[in-house]
Prior knowledge:
The protein is an all-beta fold. Helices cover about 0% and strands about 50% of the residues. The protein has strands at about 5, 10-15, 20-25, 35-40, 45-55, 60, 70-75, 80-85, 95-100, 115, 120-125.
Amino acid sequence: QVQLVESGGGLVQAGASLRLSCAASGLTFASWFTLVWFRQAPGKEREFVAGFRGRSSDTRYADSLKDRFAISRDNAENTVYLQMNSLKPEDTAVYYCAASRLTMPTISTSPISYSYWGRGTQVTVSS
């Protein structure tokens, strides 16, 4: 059973940084899977943020975020991180970690591609 638990969200001022964590159990980073971050702001659709594939070094970012956000992982801890810098009020959202066991030719940016989801962590950026 795959379980994903996010942490690290909070209330920060514009310009600050946050690092989110997603602790994964039931899968190993050496296996074929894709693990990603999405976010969802009130009244908006869930939006792809960043992701990577377990057995490779492939990563993918939303074009609008790649200059400020960075995804990384700790294989020993089975944890993936999302470093968010220069935060803006429009980054306010619930951030979700998601995973898929399916082998994908590329890292999908569609939420329907992912079967496993965490409960999310709230990030609020004040102006």
